[in-house]
Specification:
Structural class: mainly alpha
Number of strands: 0
Helix content: over 70%
Order of helices and strands: HHHHHHHHHHHHHHHHHHH
């Protein structure tokens, strides 16, 4: 225990030391003093997320405190981001996801997919991946993986040969983890980085739930089947048919779907529909502006489920509350970089790379850089730092649009595949 405590303290001390080094270095030409302090906060955030002396939610709170201590935000600026509509939207989506889990909808879907495959491994993989992707559009990606991986392990453990069971386990678990990431591309609620990027875009232009889907769905449709094919092609397995009797027995024991299950599914469907078209219905229904905004719709759905007894407060105590601290720290850090002038200074450094090459090469650079960084940095931090820079570039160059640059960079944070520490679902 003592050795572990020294290890934690040592990692945190190294982050503080690196932050102090940035503060003590001479201020670069053109960078305000406040901007240098904001860059020190950025280094602190990157360090504390990378070495993780504490879990990510606590690390996120440290980032918010560091912004205040370094003088680049006051307490209101550091914490008011937790009350923004995008946070309320994510909160509502997690409550709905908890209702799906409580009433067994997610497990029933997984078991039904396995039984429907007839034991064919390729179909089992495709079904599990499809369910993981579908759920991760509305649930936290890590929670989706945590719900489905035990089902995959149960299926793989039916194989008597331990080596063959290990092969199938690797295939199914990787498929679930990857598709949970891919599904997160499609919606604003799919990942924390999506929420952060949407928050910044909403500040400069009209931006809604449907706007994100228009850009997030096409790459998913392309990459999802390609991912399934790559896994089948390059992950070796010597078993092509599995014993699904245990899954069939469990599904039969569940019986027919209860009315509560159907009601929760209906709530999710209606909520998702209103997230997409709600703002367009407001003038036709005579509602005030934002009455059917995604955040308000999410809270209406939660209120309905609580009144119907579909969820109670004890059910949502297990919600990943730390996710809100992660999103909040990312938004606060991004705001501080803009406010202090650090973003403008970084824009001058980065813009020649973006503007000085053909647009296609600029996109390739952004996607590669984002995918690379998200393997060693929290994807929310990557988005919070670079999205304001890209928005600043587009303001000074009308040949670019904010969406053209922000969406590729944000969607690329999905691909934290290289390291198990890149995200919670990979871990």
């Amino acid at each position: 225990m003592l050795r572990r405590q020294f290890g934690v303290s040592g990692r945190f001390a190294s982050v503080v030391a690196l932050t102090l080094v940035v503060l003590l270095l001479p201020t670069p030409e053109g960078l305000p003093l406040a901007g240098k302090r904001a860059l020190a906060a950025l280094v602190f955030a990157g360090g504390v997320f990378a070495v993780q002396p504490v879990s990510l939610p606590f690390a996120s709170l440290m980032v918010s405190v560091a912004l205040v201590v370094l003088g680049v935000a006051d307490s209101s600026q550091a914490f008011e981001v937790l009350s923004r509509p995008i946070i309320i939207l994510i909160l509502g989506s997690l409550f709905i996801a908890e209702a799906l889990r409580k009433h067994g909808v997610t497990r029933r879907l997984a078991l039904f997919s396995v039984v429907s495959s007839g034991g064919d491994l390729g179909k089992i993989l495709l079904g599990m991946m499809a369910i993981a992707a579908l759920l991760s559009m509305w649930m936290e990606n890590t929670a989706t993986a945590a719900v489905l991986i035990p089902v995959a392990l149960t299926i793989a453990n039916q194989i008597p040969d331990r080596e063959r069971a290990r092969e199938v386990t690797v295939l199914l678990v990787l498929g679930i983890a990857y598709s949970a990431s891919l599904g997160g591309m499609v919606t604003v609620t799919g990942s924390a980085s999506n929420a952060v990027a949407s928050g910044f875009l909403l500040e400069i232009q009209p931006w809604g739930f449907l706007d994100w889907i228009k850009y997030g769905l096409p790459p998913f449709v392309l990459i999802f089947p390609l991912t399934w094919w790559v896994l089948r092609r390059f992950v070796p397995v010597s078993t092509e048919r599995l014993d699904i009797s245990l899954a069939r027995d469990e599904l039969e024991n569940l019986g027919s779907a209860r009315s509560a299950e159907w009601e929760v599914i209906a709530v999710l469907n209606v909520t998702a529909l209103l997230w997409v078209i709600g703002t367009y219905l407001e003038p036709y229904l005579g509602f005030p502006a934002t009455a059917l905004s995604p955040a308000v719709v999410a809270m209406i759905s939660v209120a309905y489920m609580s009144l119907r007894g579909l969820i109670v407060w004890e059910d949502v105590k297990g919600v990943s509350w730390g996710m809100f601290f992660i999103i909040g720290s990312g938004l606060a850090l991004g705001d501080a970089l803009v406010r202090s002038g650090a973003t403008a200074w970084l824009t001058e450094l980065v813009s020649p790379v973006i503007r000085g090459v053909p647009f296609l090469f600029a996109l390739m650079f952004l996607v590669f850089m984002s995918a690379l960084l998200t393997n060693v940095m929290n994807n929310t931090t990557v988005t919070a730092v670079f999205v304001p820079i890209l928005i600043s570039i587009t303001r000074g160059d009308p040949s670019f649009s904010s969406v053209q640059l922000v969406l590729p960079l944000t969607l690329a944070t999905t691909f934290g595949y290289a390291l198990p520490s890149a995200s919670g679902r990979m871990a």
